[in-house]
Design goal:
By secondary structure, this protein is mainly alpha-helical. The protein has one domain. It is built from 3 helices and no strands. Pfam families: DDE_Tnp_1.
């Protein structure tokens, strides 16, 4: 049983469940982007700049999830972000 303002005959119940599941996934993604990557405070003042920052943050989250799947670690997303940042900074220092 679920609560919605849609007419019961408007959509198949399975479709409604799938839509709400997808909505939940999107909400979790944005919560994690805001919580871990600070996407609420953009550096850019233009639409293209903000879209670029948002796109870069999403790519970062994909890379973090890929890393977590390939190399399980304790601590979840924050520790994975720290590991990526530390590795990136170490690489930059070694390059010069």
């Amino acid at each position: 049983e679920y609560l919605t303002t849609l007419a019961s005959s408007a959509y198949d119940p399975i479709d409604v469940i799938n839509i709400y599941t997808l909505r939940t996934v999107v909400e979790i993604l944005f919560r994690e982007l805001k919580q871990y990557l600070n996407i609420e405070n953009f550096h850019s003042q233009t639409l293209n700049g903000v879209l670029f920052e948002l796109f870069a943050a999403m790519i970062g989250m994909v890379l973090i999830e890929w890393l977590r799947q390939r190399h399980p670690m304790r601590g979840g997303v924050p520790d994975a972000i720290t590991a990526v940042r530390d590795g990136w900074n170490e690489t930059l220092r070694s390059v010069g």
